[in-house]
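Module 6 notes. Inverse folding takes a fixed backbone as the condition and produces residue identities as the prediction. Think of it as a translation problem where the source language is geometry and the target language is the twenty amino acids. Below is one complete input and output pair. Work through it position by position during the lab.
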């Protein structure tokens, strides 16, 4: 291998320093390019964040309104159910009272008939 030259430590350090300097310049150029449009991008990001927060607030308000309507609906349904139960209980109580009155009247008729039969037997025995 004619012409092969082994690089010395100083050559390798110099090459590494040049590469490092090139990367640093490349990074500085990219940073300058980024800084040129930074205020616009930052404003755009802020606008997006504000939009997102506004949508979240709207959704939260809609959710609270929906939950309130559902709660009111459940309360109204519960009131209607309780009213229906009360009416059913009153109807049942009225029916039981009427049945008790009919039974009492029927028992009074039976007693009157029994008493009449008893009086008839007593009259026949005399």
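Target side of the pair, the amino acids:
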């Amino acid at each position: 291998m004619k012409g092969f030259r082994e690089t010395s430590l100083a050559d390798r350090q110099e090459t590494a320093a040049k590469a490092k300097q090139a990367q640093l310049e490349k990074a500085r150029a990219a940073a300058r390019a980024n800084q040129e449009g930074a205020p616009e991008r930052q404003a755009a990001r802020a606008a997006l964040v504000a939009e997102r927060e506004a949508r979240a607030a709207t959704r939260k308000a809609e959710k609270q309104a929906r939950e309130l309507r559902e709660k009111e609906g459940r309360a109204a349904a519960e009131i209607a159910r309780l009213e229906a139960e009360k009416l059913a209980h009153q109807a049942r109580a009225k029916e039981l009272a009427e049945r008790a009155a009919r039974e009492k009247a029927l028992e009074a008729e039976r007693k009157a008939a029994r008493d009449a039969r008893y009086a008839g037997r007593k009259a026949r025995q005399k």
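Reference fact for the lab report: The chain has a mean pLDDT of 91.
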